[in-house]
Specification:
With about 475 residues, this protein is of the alpha/beta class. About 50% of the residues lie in helices and about 10% in strands. Helix 14 crosses helix 16. InterPro entries: AAA+_ATPase, AAA_lid_NorR, CheY-like_superfamily, P-loop_NTPase, Sig_transdc_resp-reg_receiver, Sigma_54_int, Sigma_54_int_dom_ATP-bd_1, Sigma_54_int_dom_ATP-bd_2.
Length: about 475
């Protein structure tokens, strides 16, 4: 006998609830409705649900809080957020918090809503580990090599979900993390996939050349313009434009980009008539644009136009679980090296790869492995095949933290050592209790270090992160998730 599918609709508009009852009852699903957050909680306590359609704005609460409550009570339940256009950015935040997807009201195409519901219910049927395995395999097919526990998984999952939304995307991350690859992935998963994808590096052109490249020019509009030329906004019409290093665009270019994003219109250089374009813009930067806005180096209005969705690609040093997979991938798959399938990376070599900070990220690792394969004998990649900068690295116990030798830290370490000594003196020991006490001591040490670093930096998180030789992302993790 086929299992009954339970769907919960949470919306303060009676018409919306009735619409889904009519739509889904006909498909054999059991539909429950709630008009407030309180009613929703009562429904969750009565039965389990496979899918919840939740309005982002309710009289007594908001959809993000309801999303958290649903996931806390029934983690297997998929959630689709319903939103008006003015709250799309918040709906994207909901996906980051665990929502399956969002749909805009009023519903333009009922078939699109039905397809979204069917896809969400299929997701519910899959076990969590099966989902991640499928995701890893799919990403590998698209050129992303990562493990199931990689922080990249969530980001690319979000990228896939927003691919079919006509939203601008801002991709942030250090040089070499693969921002253009992520942009191409979004394009490939979007309805624009059969149309052009064109990448432009804003830092590679002067202002006049970039303007001509993007918007085209008329004959005689400047010296050397012997004929009219189409710009990328015309050539890539219907497709995707990837603007790399957007932070280096001049103020004049920023103004023109803002007009295109707001109205879909642009004026060719030397032209007198505005032209229209239907193009999706994905921008990328290795610099924090928010800081550029604060220092008046980047237009605030353009920044908010670009960042409908922000994807922060983590550096390789925060993806340690991916390094071995990537190293073998580059060693075996580099097309210009005639690489061998029997390549073996020695354990000591892997240890050096794990300890290296990878300032050039994935691109640097690819170059290192290309060198290693060339120098390897009989397919064995030893430490001798690595560059000197990796071989000669010295991992200090407390890099960048000379103040850790202070009296307070000595007391912390003494406390940590005492936990071990107490348990050694009282064998047999409760290992669970020992683990708990050691974790408490560990978090106490980290908390003291973070507090001290922030105090010395007068609350400046970037400066504090530099003192601790970590990224601001790692610092935010300890501040937000570790308290």
């Amino acid at each position: 006998m086929k299992r009954q599918i339970n769907v919960l609709v949470v919306d303060d508009e009676v018409e919306v609830c009735n619409f889904f009852v009519f739509l889904l009852d006909d498909k054999g699903y059991h539909v429950s409705t709630a008009y407030t957050g309180q009613e929703m909680l009562q429904q969750l306590n009565r039965q389990s649900f496979d899918l919840a359609l939740v309005d982002l704005r309710l009289p007594d609460t908001d959809g993000l809080k309801l999303l958290e409550q649903i996931k806390a009570k029934q983690s297997q339940c998929q959630v689709i957020i319903m939103t008006g256009y003015s709250t799309v950015k918040t709906a994207v935040d909901a996906i980051k918090l665990g929502a399956y997807d969002y749909v805009e009201k009023p519903f333009e195409e009922i078939t699109d809503v039905e397809r979204l519901i069917e896809a969400a219910l299929k997701e519910t049927e899959c076990m969590s580990n099966q989902k991640h395995t499928h995701m890893v395999e799919e990403l590998a097919d698209n050129g992303f090599i990562c493990c199931q526990d990689s922080p990249l998984i969530k980001i690319l999952d979000l990228a896939k979900k927003i691919a079919n939304k006509n939203l601008t995307v801002l991709i942030q991350g250090e040089t070499g993390v693969g921002k253009e690859i992520v942009a191409r992935y979004i394009h490939s998963q979007s309805p624009r996939a059969n149309n052009p994808f064109i990448a432009v590096n804003c830092a590679a052109f002067t202002e006049n050349l970039l303007e001509s490249e993007l918007f085209g020019h008329e004959k005689g509009s400047f010296t050397g313009a012997q004929s009219a030329r189409k710009g990328i906004f015309q050539i890539a019409n219907g497709g995707t434009l990837f603007l790399d290093e957007i932070g280096d665009a001049s103020p004049g270019i920023q103004v023109k980009l803002l007009r295109v994003l707001e109205s879909g219109e642009y004026l060719p250089v030397g032209g007198e008539k505005f032209q229209r374009t239907d193009i999706r813009v994905i921008a990328a930067t290795n610099l924090p644009l928010a800081e550029a806005v604060a220092s008046k180096k980047f237009r605030e209005d353009l920044y908010y136009r670009l960042n409908a969705v922000i994807l922060e690609i983590p550096p390789l040093r925060e993806r340690l679980c991916d390094i071995e997979l990537l190293a073998y991938y580059f060693a075996r798959k580099l097309p210009y090296l005639d690489a061998r399938e029997d390549v073996l990376i020695q354990p000591e070599t892997l240890k050096m790869l794990f300890n290296y900070p990878w300032p050039g990220n994935v691109r640097e690792l690819a170059n290192v492995m290309a060198r290693a394969v060339v120098l390897a004998e009989r397919g064995k990649i030893t430490t001798d095949t690595l560059p000197d900068i990796i071989i000669n690295q010295r991992k200090q116990e407390t890099p960048g933290l000379p103040w850790l030798a202070g009296e307070d830290t000595g007391e912390i370490i003494e406390h940590f050592s005492q936990v071990v000594a107490d348990n050694l003196a009282s064998l047999p020991v409760d290992l669970n209790d020992l683990t708990r006490r050691l974790k408490e001591a560990q978090y106490y040490i980290i908390r003291r270090i973070v507090q001290e670093a922030l105090a010395r930096a007068q609350g400046n998180r970037e400066q504090a992160a530099r003192e601790m030789n970590c990224t601001t992302r790692v610092l935010r993790y300890y501040l937000n998730e570790r308290g």
